[in-house]
């Protein structure tokens, strides 16, 4: 299968590209820079130059593909609303291009905060609709094409997709701990995050491309809910720093932009995903990665 992948040179996307190539697929990856293009071509993939704002370029790549995996997102927290609108426009254009073709369209999504009081399941719909909502309401936009000749699948990734070289949320928390001289958590530290190893997430995406039915939601979740105080303790133990509670009203001052996410309870089950895809996570746990130096700071 010829698969167009946006975000193909990113943290999750590069692992997905490797997994797809291993499965015998041809990968065409969206590349914004010469560096990204070279990295893709070195793997054996084809680089397609463009960006999420170049809608005509996205449409042409989608037209020439047997399926699309949309993993890119503008992680610009200074203009998160603008990033959501760009996401909505990009997804809309690719879906319109694929309409009536019965081709798969998989897109990255998150575990929807506030969608349910308990662990989020694959049956729980996202509460976000429209271009001005979180991530541009792209999950519901995509799933709405299930009856329009597209096989849309929502890929819900855990808030921490970890592994050696991770520069995401856990890496940011580790850097803040070193700067503050203590690993912090918010309040009583009872809020939880789901987690998955990068290699497991990539395998799930490849299986979803091949097996997930139209309109389904797949959960890249290996550990359903790790308390934030335990995440902080693991970081503190690795750095040799104490663990401290940060009052909720001081979270933004202490953690910066990531404070709003670290205080969320983002738990989920992946039981349906495992059963449907025959997927079993086998990679290291988050705490194993922290202890083994996945978040070692330079110097």
From TrEMBL:
Residues 3-214 form the NAD-dependent epimerase/dehydratase domain. It holds the Pfam family Epimerase. It comes from the Bacteria. SUPFAM superfamilies: NAD(P)-binding Rossmann-fold domains. InterPro entries: Epimerase_deHydtase, NAD(P)-bd_dom_sf, NAD(P)-dependent_oxidoreduct. This is SDR family oxidoreductase. The lineage of its organism: Bacteria, Bacillati, Actinomycetota, Actinomycetes, Pseudonocardiales.
């Amino acid at each position: 299968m010829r698969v167009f992948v946006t975000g193909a040179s990113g943290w999750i996307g590069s692992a997905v590209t490797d997994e797809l190539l291993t499965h015998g697929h041809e990968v065409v990856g969206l590349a914004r820079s010469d560096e990204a293009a070279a990295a893709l071509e070195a793997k054996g993939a084809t680089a397609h130059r463009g960006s999420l704002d170049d809608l005509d370029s996205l449409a042409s790549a989608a037209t020439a593909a047997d399926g699309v995996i949309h993993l890119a997102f503008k992680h610009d927290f200074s203009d998160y609303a603008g990033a959501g609108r760009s996401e909505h426009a990009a997804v809309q254009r690719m879906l319109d291009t694929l309409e009536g073709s019965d081709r798969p369209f998989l897109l990255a999504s998150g575990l929807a905060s506030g969608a349910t009081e308990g662990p989020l399941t694959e049956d729980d719909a996202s509460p976000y609709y429209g271009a001005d909502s979180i991530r541009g309401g792209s999950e519901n936009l995509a799933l709405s094409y299930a009856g329009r000749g597209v096989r849309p699948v929502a890929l819900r990734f855990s808030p921490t997709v970890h592994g050696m070289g991770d520069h995401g949320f856990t890496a940011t928390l580790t850097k803040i701990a070193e700067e503050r001289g203590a690993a912090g958590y918010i309040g009583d530290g009872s809020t939880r995050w789901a987690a998955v190893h990068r290699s497991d997430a990539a395998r799930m995406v490849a299986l979803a491309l091949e097996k997930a039915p139209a309109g389904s939601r797949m959960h890249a979740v290996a550990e359903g809910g790790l308390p934030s105080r335990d995440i902080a303790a693991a970081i503190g133990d690795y750095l040799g720093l104490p663990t401290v509670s940060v009052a909720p009203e001081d979270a933004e001052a202490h953690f910066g932009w990531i404070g709003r996410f670290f205080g969320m309870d983002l738990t989920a089950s992946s039981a349906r995903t495992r059963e449907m895809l025959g997927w079993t996570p086998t990679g290291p746990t988050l705490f194993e990665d922290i202890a083994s130096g996945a978040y070692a700071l330079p110097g």
